[in-house]
TrEMBL record:
The keyword Transcription does not apply. The keyword Transmembrane helix applies. It is found in: Cell membrane. This is Glycosyltransferase RgtA/B/C/D-like domain-containing protein.
Length: 529
């Protein structure tokens, strides 16, 4: 029997309650497995659509893959900056290295990103569903699936897609632990935050942020302090071990972070921001909102932003998540616009922007209000069309097209392709040098395009002499290259052993003749008989 006070009893028709049968019964939630399966397909299809045309270009994708190759050749536990990972997280090298044992170098890193990029929709749905219901979870998942910038991250060998999966899982587990008042989800969330910290340094910021948020997660101060201390302690193993390794190797536990900061300070100077002009500061000030509007598309960004404001007022239990999105953005904006110690890139914004779709449902409620179904459908329809059309148009606009605005928009486009001139030289080296057991000398390039030439040439390291390496002279003597690649703004011509006379380049007394068919700023020379 069902107790008279139970929801089932109240929902059952009864002659004693006239008209009760006219009250519509609440619709049951669809199967969670079915919803998750739908979202996984929605995330996978567009990423597969660009996977086979995209190329490693941004996010140090080629460098990460080369470092993973070195690790795979001599597997070991990476303990510091100089132990094979430099400014990158060791976990990403492990993952890419493992897949390199099965797949080719151009595919391995991109496949890692694809798997984690598609799976990211699962914790995003879980987080949103817990806070605002299953319909909100589906809306967030669909918006994420169409996110053009993430399509690029999911199909190239950077670490953004992998790191984002772990961060979304952390947020979902923290939300579960707080709502259900259980420490087990918080424990696993802290474990996964260790993994995120082993991927990217910006994840380290979330250890204190989430720990402090947990202090205010409930009115029971003893319980909130206990969960905060427990979470914070479980977050520490990787950071402490990594700091110890760098202390032993470099004498400074924060050596990698300081190296990254020094790079950014120099980057500010090289980018023209050292003087602190008003234009530079304004550009950095509006960077995060601009990336949100352009990459998430205006409908998703504006609805999500409005939803954050509404949630802060009407859903205090979600304020911690708003802080996770807003406070890091403000911190990096302050460093960029005021301290002039940081140069933001669109790929640095993903951990904050991915939380915007979580708040689409409250945002729609805030914007539409009581205006009726027509207004609701119009807002949803326009937002959905923009969310699909803008990434598609941007992907077509930047695909294998160079110069001006095309180059500026390529980092946030669904499609990522190298300059045609670069790939032309890389193919020549692959077919005419690497395939025949030859060797090449490669100039450096201020825009790092020499990294792309070397990577796609498939030449083994021992058959390359690269000006960018401090072993250039040694490799030059060992490899005796028959081909030299020069960049117009490269440093090769400044070498005392190099003389350029018209179409003849002499390197350490050996003459090389320029070959036809290649486009500036690249020049290819073959050793004369």
């Amino acid at each position: 029997m069902v107790p008279a006070s139970s929801p089932a009893a109240l929902a059952s028709p009864s002659a004693a309650v006239p008209g009760l049968s006219a009250v519509p019964a609440p619709q049951p939630e669809p199967s969670t497995r079915w919803l998750v399966g739908l979202l996984l397909v929605a995330a996978l299809l567009p990423r597969l659509g660009v996977f086979f045309i995209n190329e490693n270009l941004f996010g140090d994708a080629v460098v990460r893959t080369e470092l993973a190759e070195r690790w795979l050749a001599a597997p070991h536990v990476i303990t510091s900056y100089k132990d094979g990972t430099y400014q990158f997280g060791p976990l990403h090298l492990y993952l890419v290295g493992a897949v390199l044992s099965v797949f080719e170098r151009d595919v391995a890193g991109r496949l890692v990103s694809l798997v984690f990029g598609v799976l990211s929709v699962v914790p995003l749905f879980a987080l949103t569903r817990r806070l605002f219901g299953w319909r909100a979870g589906v809306a967030a998942g669909l918006a994420f699936s169409a996110w053009g910038m993430h399509l690029q991250f999911s199909t190239t060998a950077g670490s953004e897609a992998v790191s984002l999966f772990f961060m979304l899982a952390v947020f979902a587990l923290v939300a579960e632990g707080v709502e259900e008042n259980r420490f087990q989800p918080l424990f696993w969330g802290a474990v996964l935050l260790n993994f995120a910290c082993a991927l990217r340094y910006d994840a380290w910021l979330y250890i204190p942020l989430i720990t402090v948020a947990l202090v205010f997660s409930t009115e029971d101060r003893v319980a909130s302090l206990t969960r905060a201390v427990g979470f914070g302690l479980v977050c520490l193993p990787f950071p402490l071990l990594w700091m110890q390794g760098n202390e032993l190797a470099h004498g400074d536990p924060f050596f990698p972070i300081k190296a990254v900061e020094d790079f950014h300070k120099q980057w500010v100077a090289d980018s023209g921001g050292a003087g602190g002009s008003l234009g530079w500061r304004l550009q950095q000030l509006g960077f995060w909102p601009a990336v949100a509007l352009f990459t998430l598309t205006p409908g998703v960004a504006l609805l999500g932003g409005a939803g954050m404001v509404r949630a802060w007022k009407k859903h205090p239990e979600t304020r911690w998540l708003v802080v996770m999105a807003v406070l890091p953005a403000l911190y990096f904006t302050f460093r960029a616009a005021v301290l002039l110690s940081f140069v933001p890139l669109a790929r640095f914004t993903v951990t904050q922007l991915v939380l915007v779709p979580v708040f689409l449902a409250p945002g729609l409620a805030a914007v539409v209000g009581s205006r009726g179904d027509f207004a609701r459908r119009a807002v949803v329809g326009v937002s959905a069309v923009l969310a699909v059309v803008m990434p598609v148009a941007l992907g077509i606009y930047t695909f294998r097209t160079e110069g001006g605005l095309h180059d500026s928009l390529r980092p946030v486009s669904p499609t990522s392709t190298n300059p045609v001139a670069v790939m032309q030289v890389a193919r020549f080296l692959k077919e005419e040098v690497a395939a025949k057991g030859g060797a090449a000398a490669i100039d450096d390039d201020p825009r790092y395009m020499d990294l792309q030439v070397a990577f796609f040439s498939t030449l083994p390291e021992m058959r390359m002499a690269r000006v960018r390496w401090d072993t250039f002279r040694q490799r030059l003597g060992d490899a005796r290259p028959e081909v030299v690649v020069r960049f117009d703004e490269g440093k090769l011509v400044k070498d005392p052993g190099v003389k350029l006379d018209g179409r003849t380049l002499t390197l350490d007394g050996v003459a090389y003749q320029e070959q036809d068919g290649f486009t500036a700023p690249l020049h290819v020379y073959r050793r004369q008989p």
